[in-house]
Design goal:
Elements lengths: L1 E17 L5 E21 L4 E4 L11 H13 L4 E7 L10 H16 L6 H11 L3 H6 L3 E5 L4 E4 L7 E6 L6 H6 L14 H7 L6 H4 L2 E2 L2 H7 L4 H9 L4 E4 L6 E5 L1 H14 L6 E6 L2
Parallel strand pairs: 1-8, 3-4
Antiparallel strand pairs: 1-2, 2-4, 2-5, 5-6, 7-10, 7-11, 9-10
Helix pairs in contact: 1-2, 1-3
Amino acid sequence: MEIAAPAKINLYLRVIKKLEDGYHQIETIFERISILDRVKAELSSSGTSISCSDENIPTGEESLLGRTVRSFRQRASLQEDFRVHIEKNIPVSAGMGGGSSDAAAVLILLNQLAGAPLGALELAEIGASLGADIPFFLSGYSYARGTGRGDVIEKVEDDRQLWHVVVTPPFGVSTKEVYGKIPAFTLTKNRLVDKMFTAFLRSNNIKGIPENFRNDLQDIVLREFPSLKRVFTALRSAGARGVLLSGSGPTVFGIFDREKADDAARYIRGEFPEDKWRIQTARTY
């Protein structure tokens, strides 16, 4: 069996406070986008194995993928073995949730292969124990509000497709390190989810979305990686309606009119001729 594992971007991210377990309480709006990994799984008669097209992705027993398989087997009380393979396309350590999406896809596939012994709530509980973004990917929602650690998911009802140019530099960022620098600035004082922002997702006024962009981690990442400011400048010059860092970065994206996205991507590629910069168009998935 095989399914797509889509990336995400954050259209909005507020950091509220640090929790006793070391994580942070946040409020965010997730959007799934059409940059995809492919995840394959099958029953195995020769032990459980995990492989990935990117040899740099950990696949051992204590990796996220390894723990995902183990947690599912334990929760479902299964003896069966599985063979899992990831075709990697989502950039790594880029603020796009690739690892979490792969883990969610693995949970879905293993559950199907095993005859669906676990319900959606049980899968979400496993996902939340492994990574805060995993419940969003398990939900299958195109847009969702995330609260708590980002693992409490509420669907945002909207069927509109947004179009983006997504720019990922040739280096990754540690989410843990970015959140560790949060005390250097004042946390958001307004601790309520911004209902006005999600209202824009339900309206036909696409201008309202970029006008309400927010990411409390953006200033931290830009201080650490000032070269990313070039991306903001280039996306705005290409006609982006709004530009924002996704999650803890370093990926930066812009919202474009559908008919302008491809031309904008070509323009950005001309501004970043260096090897290993990834410039992709994407839509809501």
